[in-house]
Amino acid sequence: MITYLNGKLIEKNPTELVIECGGIGYEVKISLNTFSNMPDTESVKIYTQFIVREDAQILYGFKEKDEREMFNLLTSVSGIGPSTAIIMLSGLNSSEIANAIASEDVITLKGVKGIGTKTAERMIVELKDKMLKFGVSDNISSQSNNTLRFDALTALISLGFDRRKAESAIKKVMKEQDTVEMLIKDALKIL
Q: At residue 95, does pLDDT exceed 90?
């Protein structure tokens, strides 16, 4: 359908933009992240997703393709509609959502209005494998390093350590050929 708009910015509000393209003004619903990253210049380009419902046709806009991709992944989960996805993308950026899903952080996901425990858990189950492309866990390049880091973090949290402190310690001691056991031992020395 409409993959992007490249035109003149007529109006800019925290929840929507009006962009004129070829003499037609398009109302585009946006997240707060897109609003804050959208320049105040006259000419803008915004990536879009067109949603057709029984009672409305709505154009959603995103400054970056990653945000649009996250929007589409979120709306693919049962119980998350476009409005809830936009609310999520307003409170957290794409990489924060990806990290929360990859690390099974239900509390962060539940912190978003409209997301309960069951929806957060469903999101994790359905989307966890798809989060690697969003650079989860500080852009670890390989799947094995990501798994090592996640397993070590889970172990440290289960031992009662604070998530942020554990993540910081793991980041400091992470090496290319570590095992989970070595990673945990080295992190414990810091903690």
A: no
